[in-house]
Specification:
The structure is a single chain. The chain is α+β, with helices and mostly antiparallel strands. Strand 16 and strand 17 form a beta hairpin. Strands 8, 9, 10, 11, 12, 13, 14, 15, 16, 17, 20, 21, 22 and 23 form a 14-stranded antiparallel sheet that branches. A four-stranded antiparallel sheet has the order 3-2-5-6, with no helix packed on it. It has two domains: about 90 residues, Sandwich (Immunoglobulin-like), CATH 2.60.40.1120; about 300 residues, no CATH class. The longest helix has 19 residues. About 15% of the residues lie in helices and about 40% in strands.
Length: about 425
C-alpha cells in the first residue's frame, strides 16, 4: 500500500509539472517598438505579474490559459499562453473623434474626487498584501531589497507593515555604507494623486487631496494647477479621460477653451504670493502628472506623476548630503474588490549621487498575516520581520540580470 501511494504521488506531481509551465516574453509599444515596463499580466484574480524595467516578464501558467495584458492608455490584449511569441505588441488607444458628451475638466475632477473620497471613507480599513522590490545604485555599490508587505490600500497605501523580506548586494560591498540601513524610502509608496493619512506628504501640493477643494488655503492650492483633458476610446468603444495636471503659479487667468472634439482646457491659477501668503513654497514638494479616469464611473485607473522641489538626505562615506533629487512615479488602481485600491506602484529617483528604484505589486494570492510595522529604518524593519523562504517559491516579477546578481549574492551569504 505504501508503494502504491508513493507511485500515485509521483504521478500526480509529474502531472502538475506538465500542466504548469514557465512562459516568458517582452511587451513593446506597437508603434515605436520601445519596451513597456510594468504592464500588468494576469490570468485570474490574484494570479498575475508585471513586466520589469526592460518590458520582460515570466509567468507560471497552463498552456491553455489566456493571458490578459493591461496597460492604461493602451488597448487590452488577450493571448493564449501557448501562442505567446518572443514579443507582444500593445497598441495605444486613440483620441475620440466621434461625438461625445463634453464635460469640463473641472466637473470631471470634482466627480473623481467625490468618488475617491467615498471609497476612502467606506473602505479605509481594508488591507492588501503586496510584493515590494527596491534597488539603490551609486558609484561604490548596489543593493536590492525584496519584501512582502501589508498595507491599507484604499486610494493610497498607508500603515505599512513588513511580513517577510531580505536584502541583497553585490560582492565587495561595505555593509556600513548601506543606503537601506539609513532609508525610510518606503514612505514613497504612500504617494498618489490623492494621499490620505500620511505625515510624510501632508504639507505638500497634491492635486486631488481633500484640502484642494476645501476653504481658505485649499482653494488656493487647487488654483495653482492648470488642468486639461482629452477623451480616449478603445476598440471596444469604452471611453477614458486623460487628464493632465500641471503646476503653475504665474497667472491670474480663469477660462475654459474648447480645443477640439473631446478636448477642453481649464485654467485656474493664481500667484503664489497671493494664494499662500503664510506659506513658504520652498518647504513644500509639488506633485504634478497625468491621471486616467473611466469616463462612465469616474474611477481613477492610473496616475503618472513627478515630484518637484524634492530633496533627499543621503549618507555616504560617513557624511550627510542634502541633495535635490528627481522623482518619477506611476500608480495603477483596481476596483476588483469593490473599491478603488492600489494595484501597483513604481518609482524612479535620480541625482548625481544615487539611483533608487521601487516596484510594488498587489498579490492577493499571498495570505495577509501580521507583520512588523514599518519604521524609520528600512533595513531594520526587514530584519525584524524575518525571512520566510516559502513565500519565494517563484519569482513574482522577473528580475533584470543585475537584480538577479544581487539576489543570488544574498542567497550565497
Amino acid at each position: 500500500m505504501k508503494r502504491t501511494f508513493s507511485l500515485l504521488w509521483l504521478m500526480l506531481f509529474a502531472l502538475c509539472g506538465w500542466a504548469q509551465q514557465v512562459f516568458q516574453s517582452k511587451v513593446v509599444d506597437a508603434e515605436t517598438g520601445e519596451p513597456l515596463p510594468y504592464v500588468a499580466i494576469y490570468v485570474a484574480k490574484g494570479r498575475g505579474t508585471l513586466t520589469n524595467d526592460e518590458g520582460r516578464f515570466s509567468i507560471h501558467v497552463q498552456p491553455s490559459d489566456t493571458l490578459i495584458f493591461s496597460y492604461v492608455g493602451y488597448e487590452r490584449e488577450r493571448v493564449k499562453a501557448a501562442e505567446l511569441g518572443k514579443t507582444l505588441l500593445l497598441h495605444p488607444m486613440r483620441t475620440a473623434l466621434r461625438e461625445v458628451t463634453v464635460e469640463t475638466t473641472e466637473a470631471i475632477i470634482k466627480k473623481v474626487i467625490r468618488k475617491m473620497n467615498q471609497d476612502y471613507k467606506k473602505f479605509k480599513k481594508q488591507e492588501g498584501t503586496f510584493f515590494l522590490r527596491m534597488t539603490t545604485e551609486d558609484q561604490s555599490h548596489d543593493e536590492l531589497a525584496e519584501a512582502f508587505i501589508g498595507a491599507r490600500s484604499a486610494i493610497n497605501l498607508r500603515d505599512l507593515k513588513y511580513i517577510s523580506g531580505y536584502r541583497g548586494e553585490l560582492e565587495g560591498e561595505n555593509v556600513s555604507q548601506s543606503h537601506m540601513r539609513f532609508s525610510n524610502a518606503h514612505y514613497l509608496l504612500q504617494l498618489g494623486p490623492m494621499v490620505r493619512q500620511s505625515d510624510f506628504w501632508e504639507l505638500d501640493f497634491i492635486p486631488l487631496n481633500k484640502a484642494s477643494w476645501g476653504k481658505r488655503k485649499g482653494i488656493a492650492l487647487f488654483k495653482t494647477y492648470r488642468f486639461w483633458h482629452e477623451t480616449l476610446v478603445s476598440k471596444e468603444g469604452n471611453l477614458m479621460y486623460k487628464i493632465d495636471m500641471r503646476f503653475q503659479a504665474d497667472t491670474l487667468t480663469h477660462k475654459v477653451v474648447s480645443e477640439s472634439d473631446g478636448q477642453r482646457v481649464t485654467e485656474m491659477t493664481v500667484k503664489i504670493k497671493d494664494a499662500l501668503p503664510m506659506e513658504n513654497l520652498n518647504d513644500r514638494r509639488i506633485i504634478a502628472g497625468t491621471l486616467y479616469v473611466d469616463a462612465q464611473t469616474y474611477e481613477p485607473l492610473s496616475f503618472t506623476g513627478r515630484v518637484m522641489n524634492f530633496y533627499m538626505n543621503l549618507k555616504m562615506a560617513n557624511r550627510d548630503f542634502l541633495e535635490p533629487i528627481n522623482m518619477d512615479f506611476h500608480v495603477d488602481f483596481q476596483q476588483t474588490n469593490g473599491f478603488t485600491e492600489v494595484k501597483s506602484f513604481t518609482a524612479s529617483l535620480r541625482n548625481k549621487l544615487l539611483i533608487l528604484r521601487a516596484l510594488l505589486f498587489n498579490v492577493n494570492s499571498v495570505p495577509a498575516v501580521k507583520g512588523s510595522k514599518a519604521g524609520e529604518n528600512m533595513q531594520e524593519s526587514i530584519d525584524k520581520a524575518g525571512f520566510d523562504s516559502s513565500l519565494w517559491t517563484e519569482e513574482i516579477v522577473l528580475r533584470t540580470k543585475r537584480e538577479e546578481e544581487m539576489a543570488r549574492n544574498k542567497r550565497a551569504q
